[in-house]
């Protein structure tokens, strides 16, 4: 009877020791895993917020406002300066120079205004359609052609925006000149008035 009791006690102790060893082993393994994970700078992905945070991009590429909500037509001189001048100011690719009346007169006589518009819209020889900028509207391109013609001494329709722009620029220059003259006259008048006041003051003191 005593032997059976000892065997039972031994069995229970064996089980307890085994369970204790298993618990210690699990604790050790968990600790090692956490230590290794911290050493590489990471934490287990068990939190959805943490996962979302780690997936957030570090930066964004700003491509600019390619399509404006309010479309504003470009002035012909701006289109020319930013696109056409590279060829029509230098003669690159045998492009006719702006201001060369003889060359433009021949083209205008051969193809007419509609033909020149068509060439600028759809391309001709080495010139790409719309000068290589498909974002330009047909009207912007045609107005730029009219602007080049007017600057080259070719008469276009009286309602052509290019002529209106040239006339507007000349008018603005005239207004600026008149404003400067008026300002100088006012300054001269102020100086004369100050001199008169000073003379009157001197007369009174005498």
Automatic annotation (TrEMBL):
<dbReference type="InterPro" id="IPR009056">
    <property type="entry name" value="Cyt_c-like_dom"/>
</dbReference>
<keyword id="KW-0408">Iron</keyword>
<dbReference type="Pfam" id="PF13442">
    <property type="entry name" value="Cytochrome_CBB3"/>
</dbReference>
<feature type="compositionally biased region" description="Acidic residues">
    <location>
        <begin position="161"/>
        <end position="200"/>
    </location>
</feature>
<keyword id="KW-0249">Electron transport</keyword>
<feature type="region of interest" description="Disordered">
    <location>
        <begin position="158"/>
        <end position="206"/>
    </location>
</feature>
<keyword id="KW-1133">Transmembrane helix</keyword>
<protein>
    <submittedName>
        <fullName>C-type cytochrome</fullName>
    </submittedName>
</protein>
<keyword id="KW-0813">Transport</keyword>
<feature type="transmembrane region" description="Helical">
    <location>
        <begin position="12"/>
        <end position="36"/>
    </location>
</feature>
<keyword id="KW-0812">Transmembrane</keyword>
<dbReference type="InterPro" id="IPR002323">
    <property type="entry name" value="Cyt_CIE"/>
</dbReference>
<keyword id="KW-0349">Heme</keyword>
<keyword id="KW-0479">Metal-binding</keyword>
<keyword id="KW-0472">Membrane</keyword>
<feature type="domain" description="Cytochrome c">
    <location>
        <begin position="71"/>
        <end position="152"/>
    </location>
</feature>
<dbReference type="InterPro" id="IPR036909">
    <property type="entry name" value="Cyt_c-like_dom_sf"/>
</dbReference>
């Amino acid at each position: 009877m005593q032997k059976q009791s000892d065997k039972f006690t031994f069995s229970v102790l064996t089980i307890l020791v085994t369970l204790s060893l298993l618990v210690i082993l699990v604790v050790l393994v968990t600790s090692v895993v956490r230590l290794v994970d911290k050493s590489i700078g990471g934490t287990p992905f068990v939190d959805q917020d943490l996962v979302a945070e780690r997936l957030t991009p570090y930066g964004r590429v700003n491509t600019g406002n390619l399509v404006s909500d309010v479309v504003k037509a470009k002035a012909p001189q701006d289109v020319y300066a930013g696109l056409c001048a590279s060829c029509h100011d230098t003669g690159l690719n045998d492009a006719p120079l702006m201001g060369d009346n003889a060359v433009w007169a021949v083209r205008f006589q051969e193809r007419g205004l509609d033909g020149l518009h068509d060439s600028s819209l759809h391309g001709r020889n080495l010139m790409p359609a719309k000068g290589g900028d498909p974002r330009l509207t047909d009207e912007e391109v045609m107005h730029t052609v009219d602007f080049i013609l007017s600057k080259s001494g070719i008469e276009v329709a009286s309602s052509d925006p290019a002529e209106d722009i040239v006339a507007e620029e000349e008018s603005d220059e005239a207004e600026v000149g008149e404003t400067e003259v008026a300002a100088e006259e006012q300054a001269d008048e102020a100086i004369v008035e100050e001199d008169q006041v000073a003379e009157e003051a001197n007369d009174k003191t005498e």
